[in-house]
């Protein structure tokens, strides 16, 4: 019986390390994709970069994350998963807990230039919101990109 409990504890520890490594990998991927998108915006311009960001099967969509592009007024410029958001001012939108997370995105972009925001957002193809955290990176005087992962 003692061996059984030791085995259970070992399995739990391994699972914790695996989940931690997966979250760290998703976190790194979100930062990496945002930096890649910001570099592309600088190199080829906002219009051409937006076209690439908007591709559902483009290089800014992975199994763990996707990049979105907004302006500092709260207007969605690029979103590969929910193109219906493009052109809409989302600054007053609240998540299921009442958090105005798009305003927080703007604050992060315009104050520090980059950072993380926690909020509730539905996973692609789902209606029910899940915990999500997104990395926000300023890309110009009036634009920023974001990419997140679900907890």
Report on the architecture of this protein.
The protein is an alpha+beta fold. It has a single domain, classed as Beta-Lactamase (2-Layer Sandwich). The chain has 3 helices and 5 strands; from the N terminus they run ααββαβββ. The protein has a 5-stranded antiparallel β-sheet, with helices on both faces. It is globular.
Relevant terms:
Beta-Lactamase; single chain; alpha+beta; 41% helix
CATH architecture, by name, is: 2-Layer Sandwich
Provide the succession of SSEs: HHEEHEEE
Spatial order of strands in the largest sheet: 2-1-5-4-3
Total strand count, please?
5
What is the CATH class name? Alpha Beta
What name goes with the CATH superfamily? PAS domain
Mean pLDDT: 88
Q: Per CATH, what is the topology?
A: Beta-Lactamase
Describe the structure concisely for a colleague.
This protein has a single domain (2-150), classed as Beta-Lactamase (2-Layer Sandwich). Helices cover 41% and strands 23% of the residues. It has helices at 2-44, 46-53, 101-111, and strands at 67-71, 76-78, 114-122, 129-138, 143-150.
Give a topology summary:
Layout: H1 2-44, H2 46-53, E1 67-71, E2 76-78, H3 101-111, E3 114-122, E4 129-138, E5 143-150
Antiparallel strand pairs: 1-2, 1-5, 3-4, 4-5
């Amino acid at each position: 019986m003692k061996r059984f409990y030791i085995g259970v504890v070992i399995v739990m520890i391994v699972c914790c390390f695996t989940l931690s490594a997966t979250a760290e990998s998703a976190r790194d991927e979100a930062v990496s994709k945002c930096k890649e998108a910001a570099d592309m915006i600088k190199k080829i311009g906002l219009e051409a970069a937006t076209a690439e960001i908007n591709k559902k099967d483009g290089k800014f969509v992975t199994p763990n994350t996707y990049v979105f592009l907004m302006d500092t007024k709260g207007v969605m410029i690029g979103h590969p998963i929910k193109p219906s958001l493009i052109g809409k001012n989302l600054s007053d939108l609240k998540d299921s807990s009442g958090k105005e997370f798009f305003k927080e995105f703007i604050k992060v972009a315009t104050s520090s230039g980059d950072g993380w925001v926690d909020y509730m957002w539905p996973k692609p193809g789902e209606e029910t919101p899940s915990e999500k955290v997104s990395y926000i990176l300023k890309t110009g005087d009036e634009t920023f990109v974001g990419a997140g992962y679900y907890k």
